[in-house]
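Example S7 (structure tokens).
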């Protein structure tokens, strides 16, 4: 095997890994067939991936007392050894785990601490936490960060709720803790990557996270869309006519100021003339009948999301976040229906709008595989 594989070999290897990410498990013959490679070509790449600890063989399954003949050993992404450190830098909490190449289905966090408000304190906490997770020499460290992130330059451009991160050298901090390459991932992109392989209809989609803020990410060809600017899919910062609220981005009237948790609470305060209401009151207010202000807010969300679907020719939207998880079905059904009605493709065929759980840790492992295992010669990463 040459020290630096050919570009064709890298491309073939990436195709195989994509397939395993989506199918979970497959035999050598199935992998060769699905990727259009000859069996010897696929077999050689698989052997090398097994040797490197990226892929592993599953023992043949026994059904009852009968062995299922010899169906050809199944392969999957390796589950045994943690290879990535994944970290969520959240406004409230920082959470971290050491995870293997097989990404977990549900959220998995081993250690968490309250996010401090300085870079130095955060680094100190990370040092302490690093001892509690089981990985000494990870292949890479993946960090999800809220706000607007220039992933290529590893810089946080705007983070209204974590201002210190805008001036911090997060890559440098993480490299003091783990001797490994570091990848910054914008929070909503980590959530979008977490959807890859998590459901069968894994084609292009627009991910919308409605939580403390309103974030968006467009997934095309199994990758977060990256244009010339270090931002895309930011539907939350579309100005809504008639809305004058100031936004954390510096703008005015953004969708986020209406549809985020804080925005919904503010609307209920204004309509009930009660300053003490909380998100629990917002949830209660939508229990039996949707208040008109909430319908107007969801219509605004639908307008922005459907504009994104129309613009990119994408037929699927995935909604995640604390707001959609917390609200009763009366409210989420209205939101889903409003997006479906507004998207132009619904005149021709179904537009799929689904609610999904947040799979941030999964998304960070997928980012780790895409950025640090797929495009490079993995053998240099051991
Ligand atoms: Zn804004």
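Recovered sequence:
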């Amino acid at each position: 095997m040459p020290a630096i594989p050919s570009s064709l070999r890298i491309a073939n290897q990436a195709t195989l890994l994509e397939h395993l990410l989506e199918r979970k498990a497959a035999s050598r013959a199935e992998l060769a067939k699905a990727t259009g490679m000859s069996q010897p070509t696929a077999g050689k790449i698989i052997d090398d991936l097994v040797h490197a600890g990226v892929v592993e063989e599953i023992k043949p399954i026994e059904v009852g007392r009968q062995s299922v003949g010899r169906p050809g050993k199944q392969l999957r992404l390796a589950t045994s050894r943690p290879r990535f450190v994944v970290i969520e830098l959240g406004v409230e909490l920082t959470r971290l785990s050491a995870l293997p190449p097989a990404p977990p289905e549900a959220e998995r966090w081993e250690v968490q601490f309250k996010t401090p408000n300085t870079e130095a304190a955060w680094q100190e906490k990370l040092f302490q936490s690093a001892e509690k997770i089981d990985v000494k020499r990870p292949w890479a460290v993946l960090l999800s960060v809220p706000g607007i992130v220039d992933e290529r330059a590893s810089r946080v451009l705007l983070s209204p709720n974590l201002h210190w991160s805008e001036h911090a050298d997060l890559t440098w901090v993480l490299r003091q803790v783990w001797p490994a390459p570091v990848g910054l991932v914008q929070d909503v992109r980590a959530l979008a990557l977490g959807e890859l392989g998590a459901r069968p209809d894994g084609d292009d989609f627009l991910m919308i996270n409605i939580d403390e803020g309103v974030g968006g990410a467009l997934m095309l060809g199994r990758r977060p869309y990256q244009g010339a600017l270090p931002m895309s899919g930011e539907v939350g910062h579309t100005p809504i006519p008639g809305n004058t609220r100031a936004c954390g981005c510096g703008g005015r009237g953004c969708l986020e100021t209406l549809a985020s948790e804080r925005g919904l609470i503010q609307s209920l305060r204004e309509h009930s003339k009660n300053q003490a209401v909380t998100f629990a009151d917002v949830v209660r207010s939508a229990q039996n009948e949707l208040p008109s202000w909430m319908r107007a807010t969801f219509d605004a969300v639908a307008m922005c999301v459907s504009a994104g679907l129309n613009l990119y020719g994408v037929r699927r939207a995935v909604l995640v976040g604390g707001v959609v998880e917390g609200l009763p079905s009366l409210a989420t059904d209205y939101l889903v229906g409003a997006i479906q009605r507004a998207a132009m493709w619904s005149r021709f065929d179904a537009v799929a709008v689904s609610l999904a759980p947040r799979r941030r840790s999964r998304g960070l492992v997928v980012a780790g595989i895409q950025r640090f295992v797929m495009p490079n010669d993995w053998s240099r990463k051991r």
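Notes on this example. The chain is about 40% helix and 20% strand.
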